[in-house]
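Side project, low priority. Logging it here so it doesn't get lost.
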Amino acid sequence: MDGLHFLEELEAWSTAYELRYMVPADTNRDMAEGTLNIGLFNLPIALRGVGLQFVLTLLNPRLRKAMLFEEPSAIYFQALNFLSVSRRWFIRYLALPRPYFLRQRRFSEHPNAAGYLHARRYSAHPWYIKPKLFARWGPKALLTRLLGGVVPGDEGEKYVPQGYRLTELGPDAFKGKGTKEMDVTKTKLVENSRLGCPFAA
């Protein structure tokens, strides 16, 4: 089996699965609204309706229908297409290559003395952001405060400002559990010489 054949079969299976199970339901709408509320959290309330319409233009029509959302007006599709083309043109012709020291760093590159990593950027809620002075009172933080959002260090330990360990990510009920089992499984996989790329000859 080659990779292309595998992808074609996977696409056919996915399409058939969606046709059978991706159907309109109130539970889909509830889940979608919860997710969208997080994504639109930092937008001013007056702009959230417009923001929602732009998000809906990005959704597959079948998915949008399953979530019980109406199709946005054509003007939103046209506006999004214009913005996408403009951004592509700007990046291609006007944006200079980014030097290494200005690279995007979304997470700390090395753990601290206690073994914790920190996120360096956030969209809606400041999960795992260290509440440094600039993070709490810089331009983005001031704008976030003005719009009624939360900044790193707000609400105590809710957003885990001390950082995270990869082995501790997930629901609190499972924090610190399964590490030994994971290490055993990892060792078995590494030692198994039969494992490899599924498309390799």
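Brief comment: The two ends are 9 Å apart (CA to CA).
Revisit when time allows.
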